[in-house]
Amino acid sequence: MRRLFLFAGIIFVFAATCASAQTINLSGIYKCIQSCQGGLPAYVTQNGNELNLVTEAGVASRAWPDWFAPENRIWIDSLDQSAVYTPDGMVIQFDNGKIWMRDLGPKPTPRRR
User: CATH number, domain at 47?
Assistant: First the structure.
């Protein structure tokens, strides 16, 4: 009976961790600022916990929260590496040293009166 409760507890902790993983939306356009392989913008599209990435070189990949740190890391399957992102989702840094920064577009020009 104790084993049943232990097993149920482990399943509960795992489910709670997965449910609370990745509360930030990483969808957007990013600009590669370090170790870039191309000059195109990078794109991230997030649907729940699943992410679709298109690198600055035009390579499409799928990603999801990293098993060991789902609250701040993603695993990119086709690139066989993970990436950490900042709490505000403005920067994504890959294990190979590549860094993407969210592209917010041009700064607005002040209006003259």
Answer: 2.40.128
